[in-house]
Design brief:
mainly alpha, two-stranded antiparallel sheet, disordered N terminus, 8 helices
């Protein structure tokens, strides 16, 4: 096989993977409109559920999502208004707040459409398959974050706990 044909074949396979990732991202986004919440609100609930107490701040959530503070602040304020999050003074910062899931927030998170839909196929993978997938996804996320508006090289805390092959 000539180098030109081989390179074209590899490019086509790479395009297939990119298209699959795009398709998965659209499906994930689409299922995020559930239980009266928007996708960003589900992300915030998951984040505050999974994060260490000291990272349950607006700034940490904005860094995790690699977006500006204003939309994060609106999202969190809405979740507080809905009774899904509570806020309390941050012991280390006079003007800062920590956020926690309320009982209602934890109950709603049990209905998380993302975990319900993706949980079974991931659980059906072997530990080795999960490790490979986690490693590959971390590489993709890190690459994308390095080109985004937030500081390069940061991996969301939720990804740090995944096994790497």
């Amino acid at each position: 096989m000539s180098e030109g044909v081989e390179a074209a074949g590899e490019g086509a396979a790479g395009d297939d993977v990119v298209n699959l990732l795009d398709h998965v991202s659209r499906l994930v986004y689409g299922i995020g409109f559930a239980e009266g919440l928007f996708p960003a609100q589900w992300v915030a609930l998951r984040y505050f559920h999974d994060s260490h107490e000291s990272a349950r701040t607006l700034t940490a959530l904005a860094r995790f999502q690699h977006i500006h503070l204003a939309p994060v602040s609106r999202t969190v304020a809405t979740l507080v208004d809905k009774g899904l999050l509570s806020r309390r003074p941050h012991p280390g910062f006079k003007r800062g707040w920590l956020f926690d899931l309320t009982d209602e927030g934890r109950t709603l998170l049990d209905k998380d459409p993302l975990r319900q839909l993706l949980g079974p196929p991931v659980a059906g993978m072997t530990a080795s398959e999960q490790a490979v997938l986690a490693n590959l996804m971390k590489r993709i996320v890190t690459h994308m974050q390095d080109r985004g508006p937030a500081p390069p090289g940061t991996i969301p805390p939720a990804l740090d706990n995944l096994p790497v092959a």
